[in-house]
Amino acid sequence: MAETDSLVVGALPKDGHAWRIDWFGNLAFPNRMIRRTQTSMLLHFSRVRDDPYDPAALLSASSTNSHYQRKAWVSIGSLGLFRVGDIWRNGRLEARPDYQLETFDDLLIEKNTTSIVKAGLSPDGDRFLLPLEEHPWHRNNTQVKIRGNHPAVDGATIHPSLSN
Prior knowledge:
mainly beta, three-stranded antiparallel sheet
């Protein structure tokens, strides 16, 4: 649990509820009239319905209401503060659950071993890289780019790839 003197992110909800970071959206200058010194990133988050300290429950598609996500622009310089799956309450980091941890001893991530594709892509016309039934949190971001290692479907590691 976060300490009372921890950093507060003003762009996140301050309504007393637990909110889960679902996805990193596009990069942009959201308000061109107030041009920021850094590009901003669109965070997608949804309210947690269940126990925000139970990683198994949080992996369930019913743990949050992904149909009613909120979005907030944050400076790209704050990217290191956020992880997909983090739980925030009143603008403060409250929990960083241990979901499923994997170790890849021989995974090489470089230009020749990865691809950048759209999150809503179905390479074989039958299966999606990120099926909405299993990962509904990218529902509003099916056109954004993700990076995955080859092969793109079986045994792939997939993660958001920030783009504009």
